[in-house]
Amino acid sequence: MDLSFSHFPFDLVLFGLIAAFLALRLRGILGTRVGVEPASPAAPAPRPGPVIEGRAEPPAALTDYDVPAPETRVGQVLGAIAGQEREFVPAQFLRGVEVSFRQVVQAFAAGDRAMLRERLTAEAFSAFDAAIQSREQAGETQKSEVRAIGSLAIVDAAIDQMAGAPRARIDVRIVSDQISLTLDKDGHPVAGTDAVTEFSDLWTFERLLGVSIGGAAWRLAASRSA
């Protein structure tokens, strides 16, 4: 048997030892860095919330109240009314008009005579009642909805000297967005539209100064288009 090492690949073994030594040194240099934690798995992205279909409704617009300045003629009349009615404040009066306007429009459409009798003067109630009777006899129905009241403006005021007690009158211009539609007995439209329409009305409110009465203190005495 030939035990000589003449054919043994010493060069390959030597290169292998050198490569192993370099690998150990490299591992010592590039090992785990002090103060650096291994990277954690990426957190999953937050899931979006549920999507609500549809269009967001805009916030309701505030009603604009227009009160004449105290030095104007109408402002002086309002001051005289406040002199006889301590609780009268023009801005609060307009807030009451806004409530009354919605109630009267709805009551007229529904034929609610009790509400109208409480909010109207006797003469105005007679006119409204006659219109409701005519509508009922024709078999018609009224669809009315106040969507918004854009502005309320006091445009005139007066104090009438009556035999018993002075009577105050205030004219208010009311600009509103409404749906107003009259249907016949078969449900067909005969007047108005189901589209939102801007209306401008002039309502006259009255009350006897210094006199307490049941129901609303200020009552609607007349209404017409402005």
TrEMBL record:
Domain of life: Bacteria
Residues in Tim44-like domain copies: 74-225
Origin species: Gluconacetobacter aggeris
InterPro entries the UniProt entry points to: NTF2-like_dom_sf, Tim44-like_dom
Protein's recorded name: Tim44 domain-containing protein
Spans through the membrane: 6-24
Keyword Membrane included in the entry's annotation: yes
Signal peptide: none
Keywords: Membrane, Transmembrane, Transmembrane helix
